[in-house]
Amino acid sequence: MSRAASRQVHLVRRPEGVPQPDDFALVEAPLPELAEGELLVENLWMSVDPYMRPRMTAGFELGEALSGGAIGRVVSSRHAVFREGDLVRSGLGFRDRFVSDGRGLQTLKPDPDLPLSVYLHALGGTGFTAYGGLLEIGKLKDGEQVFVSTAAGAVGSVAAQIAKLKGCYVVGSTGSDDKCDWLVNQAGIDVAINYKTHPIRQAVASATPRGIDVYFDNVGGEHLDAALRRMNMLGRIAVCGMISGYNGGGAPVSELANIIYGRVTLRGFVAADFMGAHERFLAEMTGWLKSGRIKYQETVVDGLDQAPGALIGLFSGANSGKMLVRLAK
């Protein structure tokens, strides 16, 4: 590859259902010479996340590089702020290098006692989403009854563990016995449900004898229906994702009347809703990680050419914890 080129993953076809390898193409694109005020970044790590699936239907442009969270190193700079060797966070994943004028980049000064990769999950967007969604949107109180769907995923695992740190009774759902074992014996939650082997409605009812005060929803569909049947009076549902319907064919929700009679608050959210809590999140999460009170799993694949497969794998549960692509050392 030329030093003046970037390898990029482009969306070349709108997926129908679960994305397929032919929906993507690995493309080499030319890079311009650096102008005054610009810098060249080599990406080291990038993230793949379920939220990208709806954007493949409406959002990402065909024939252009996808985007997603990334951590890179400045390899050359004519910028007044960013220096060669600086680590930066960006939304310009799915490419191995890029030229920027600095907009949208954040200098990253990682804690030397933590691996760089955690800044793309527990100390990144997914961790902040879990933190704010549970505490700011879900209004979690100490000692409450909590249910988290996809509790072994990057967002769910953090939400479930924060709830345990707050003295709550926590039930989580996931898609394998191995993930259930990790949730109970490593993450420390009270009950883990394998929804692929146990009907979710009955399993949630059995696991929540005192009902549910806060449901952190990553799934929608049957999981949301199961939670609605168990919500306590004045319960709160923080809707983070609807992965069961991202590829079409999601199950209908039939228990919505429980929102009325239970005076339940159901609210969707994005991280921008609670940016005022970001500094507090960084301080608390750094402490929890360094003390071992928050645990995590990473599924790492190597090479930009593996990024489409990593993204597709999210929808079959191929990841334990955060799915990451390592691009360079």
From TrEMBL:
Zinc-finger as UniProt keyword: no
Pfam families attached to this UniProt entry: ADH_N_2, ADH_zinc_N
An example molecular function term from Gene Ontology annotations: oxidoreductase activity, acting on the CH-CH group of donors, NAD or NADP as acceptor
Segments forming domain Enoyl reductase (ER): 17-325
Entry keyword set: Oxidoreductase
Protein name: NADP-dependent oxidoreductase
